[in-house]
Amino acid sequence: MVSIQNLHKKFGKNQVLSGLDLEIGEGGIFAVLGPNGSGKTTLIKCLLGMVIPNKGNINVLGENVKNGSAYRHKIDYLPQIANFPNNLKVKELIKMIKDLRGNTTLDQELISLFKLEPFLDKKLGNLSGGTKQKVNLVLTFMFDSPLVILDEPTSGLDPISLLRLKKLIQAEKAKGKTILITSHIMSFVEEISDEIVFLLEGQIYFKGTISELKSKTNQPDFEHAIASILTDNHA
Amino acid sequence: MLKILKYSFYDLMRSRWSYVYFAFYLLLGVVLLFLNNDLSKAVITLMNVIIVLVPLIGTIFGVMYYYNSKEFTELLLAQPLKRSSIFLGQYLGVAISLSMSLILGLGIPFIFYGLFKSSAIWDFSLLLITGTFLTFIFTALAFNIALSNENKIKGFGYAILLWLFLAIIYDGIFLMTLILFEDYPLDKLSLIGTMLNPIDLSRTLILLKLDISALLGYTGAIFKQFFGTNFGLIISISMLSVWVIMPVLRIVFKAKRKDF
Hints:
The complex is a heterodimer.
Chain A: E1 2-11, E2 14-24, E3 28-33, H1 40-48, E4 55-60, E5 63-64, E6 75-78, H2 90-101, H3 106-113, H4 129-141, E7 147-151, H5 159-174, E8 178-182, H6 186-192, E9 195-200, E10 203-208, H7 210-217, H8 222-234
Parallel strand pairs in A: 3-8, 3-9, 6-7, 7-8
Antiparallel strand pairs in A: 1-2, 1-4, 4-5, 9-10
Chain B: H1 2-14, H2 16-36, H3 39-68, H4 70-77, H5 83-112, H6 121-148, H7 152-180, H8 187-195, H9 198-209, H10 217-227, H11 230-257
């Protein structure tokens, strides 16, 4: 699905990714974890072609990221901070993205799932953070692409919407999709992900299931396992 | 690209500033016609305003639009769209909507005053054409500055400096060189100097078309010889086109290599 070799990225003097290799197979939920500034978002943005790597090779579904933009038809991306053009209405934004990417009928389903009907005629600038995030989720999931990338999907969501989101992610996984998630909410990651990828200082520190991580670090639960990695490496 | 252009254009047409800009030109046109009571005189006064104001508005709008639509740009970048079409679409959206405000805002009062029956129609059209060129040039320059500067304040600062330089300081330096080297033949130098600044170029072009070059004395005669002819007109228009194309090419080049 995704194959990355020897990825390097520097922002000025700040080396964010240094020789990262990663293979992600088909199907399943993968959580990308790591401390702040470990390069999670940079990694995702490299996949999307928003950040241009200094060195290295990225293939998404057999296509090299450097060769044009058509491969992004197969990726659904949820950006970290939901900021939209403020004087557009929700309805217009959805229509616009459809116009740009191709038609879909899934949006109606998603709008009713997140109970967004009352907001359709409101301007995006007047929505609360959580509602914006729901709009963001609708935009992401309405295209039914084989690769889904979610950057902090839980931010700003209320408990009911969070439950709906979890269900939605599971349903997408059941369709055989590959889902890449970054999150700082450990309980969410533990509940939902099949495998985790732990980034540290611009490289993959660990890749495997949660139980493998627990046995590797000799810790009884997931949160402590993560914490032990961080203290071992920063002590 | 056309889709992005469409959305940027609609977005701007809906924003208050396009109307303010449009209303300003409408008012300016009406007031000038009312005060001058003569089409060709109004065109001359208008030139002085346009030459300074259009570049300023183009610069400010371009920088402002780029920074304000950052989120929109990021949303688009994750879609299957080419980078060059995203940025060219946005640039054309801004430039076209600004040009439309200019052309409609000035055109409407002049048409009602009887422009089509007047001999000033060619001068007026030339004024609008150079105004449109200046809008395209300075919006492109503004996009260049904004693309190269992440920091908004810095971007605005450089943009204003650029305008200040081309609209005012350049003339000062130009004049100083002419005075310093007055013992030498300067006609070629001053021609080239004029060509290298789009604002000066537009001003000279309009002034000479308006047939008031007698005011410019000896230099005016040389300029008239050059700019007054069709050859001069073609060279000037192509020079203005180069001023549009170069920054646009740099937008495409810069956009391909930028991280978001």
